[in-house]
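Backbone-to-sequence.
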């Protein structure tokens, strides 16, 4: 059995800005913050476990043309919860890759929203069902691969 994912660490350009986004808009719970060797960091959880670490050590925004993270996907229980996040993100002025909830693929029941954090890192919030009537941005390929 392969190892399962644990927490995800993201490099950010401005810890205060990113911390506010992940805490205030997405609802992650701060676990701790610190400073070490000229860099600041924050640990964020879901109330039970560590989910994200933010490291203020990047000099520029996310670049999807470089090797590394393609996108970070979060899952919620219902498409209604996805729409609640969409509302909060739109109120925050977040940049979206697709308009509204989209299916993961043509005819798929799973789907969600695709957007960018303050540094341009690609994020997804999806539900395993409820998106079967939503459009798929690409007919023959997975939505998550094209943003």
């Amino acid at each position: 059995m392969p190892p399962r994912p644990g927490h995800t660490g993201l490099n950010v350009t401005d810890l205060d800005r990113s911390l506010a986004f992940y805490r205030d808009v997405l609802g992650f719970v701060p676990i701790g913050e610190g400073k070490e060797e000229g860099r600041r960091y924050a640990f964020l959880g879901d109330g039970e476990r560590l989910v994200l670490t933010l490291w203020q050590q990047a000099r520029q925004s996310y670049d999807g043309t470089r090797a590394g993270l393609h996108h970070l996907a979060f899952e919620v229980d219902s498409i209604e919860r996805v729409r609640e996040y969409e509302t909060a993100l739109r109120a925050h002025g977040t940049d979206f890759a697709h308009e509204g909830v989209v299916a993961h693929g043509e005819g798929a029941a799973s789907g969600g929203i695709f957007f960018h954090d303050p540094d341009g890192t690609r994020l997804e919030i999806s539900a395993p069902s409820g998106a079967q009537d939503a459009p798929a941005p690409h007919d023959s390929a997975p939505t998550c691969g094209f943003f």
